[in-house]
Amino acid sequence: MSHTAHIPSHRKPRQRASTTALRAGVAGGVLSTIAVAGAAGPAQAEPVTQTIEMPTITEGLSTAVAASAQATQQVAHDLETQAQQDAAAAKAAKTAKKAKAEAVRKAEAEKKAEAAAKAKAEAEAAERASRTAERTTLSASSGSSGSSGSSASASTTSYSSSATGSAASVVAFAKAQVGDAYVSGGTGPNSWDCSGLVQAAFRSVGVDLPRVSQSQSTAGTQVSLSNLQPGDILYWGGAGSAYHVAVYVGGGQFVGAQNSGTGVVQASLDYDPPSGAVRVL
After folding, report:
1. What CA–CA distance (Å, rounded) separates 281 from 278?
2. Which end of the chain is more exposed for a tag (fewer CB within 10 A), N or C?
3. What order do you get walking across the sheet with 221-223 strand by strand?
């Protein structure tokens, strides 16, 4: 053995022929491609279109979003409903307040009207009451109507004592009720108030008079108390505001439903002189 046999050789190891050939072929192909590209001139770049796919929302996330949107809509609906309810409540409160004020005003007006009516009734009652003591003797006076009639005729101007036709029927009806009771609002057949008796007397001959004294005092032609005829309507108070009426029966006498103490009586005009008279027949 040579004395240098154990020393490694410094020569590079030979590459395998196949590897060397492959590398040479690749290099050649690359150079050929570059050469062809250079000869063909610069290539025009084509636009690159790239599609980016968005991540797909999972089924759970979609359900959550839908639920959130529904909840938002429900909250909005609830708020709108509450606002409508608040507006309706405010309107109802305002209406109730206005109605209450109107009711109070109406009640006060009715109270004032009642007070005025009561005051008027009391005044009329007081005026009638001033004659009550004297009227309690009317029944006795009617029993002696002949002498009373003579006295009345002596102190007045030409009262007629004769009655004919419808006037005679009115007088007869009125006299027939003497002794009946006086009842406020009474229209017969056994109890009367003053205007109820007068109305019924004229109705007996087919004449329909108003129901109350005030209207009866203007139902016919105004006549003088010095020129009375049987069947004329006598009234006390003003024409159109009379508080009492009766029927003149002739001879200076009248028949009227006076008050609850005397009932229906026949009495002298001198006892309680009327304010005026109207002639219907």
Report:
1. 9
2. N
3. 221-223, 276-279, 233-236, 244-250, 253-259, 263-268
CA triple 29-30-33, angle to 5 deg: 85
Query: Whose CA is closest to 280, among 172, 189, 203?
Result: 203
Quick: pLDDT tens for 186-234: 999 999 999 999 999 999 999 999 999 999 999 999 999 999 999 999 9
Residue type for position 19: T
* pTM over the 0.90 mark: no
Dihedral angle of Cα 35, 36, 42, 48, to the nearest 10 degrees:
-110
Partners of residue 180 on adjacent β-strands: none
Provide the Cα torsion 66, 68, 73, 75; round to 10°: 160
Structure tokens at 137: 């003797």
First-to-last C-alpha distance (Å) of the chain? 190
Which range has the top average pLDDT, 13-22, 63-72, 238-247?
Answer: 238-247
Please check the confidence at residue 267 and state whether its pLDDT lies above 90: yes
- Residue owning tokens 């007070």: 115
- Where do runs of H (alpha helix) occur along the chain? 17-40, 59-129, 132-135, 138-143, 145-155, 165-176, 194-203, 213-216
Sole residue written with tokens 């020393």: 7
The maximal CA–CA distance of the chain, rounded, in angstroms, is: 207
Specify the residue for token string 């108003």: 210
**Three-state secondary-structure class, residue 5:** coil
Integer Cα distance of 133 and 129 in angstroms: 8
- Tell me the HSE value of 10 on the side-chain side, using a 13 A CA sphere: 1
Q: Which amino acid is at 72?
A: T
Q: Report the amino acid identity of residue 92.
A: A
Rounded distance between C-alpha atoms, residue 9 and residue 18, angstroms: 24
Sorted by sequence, the CB contacts under 8 Å of residue 216 that are 6+ apart come out as 195, 198, 199, 209, 210, 233, 235, 242, 245, 278
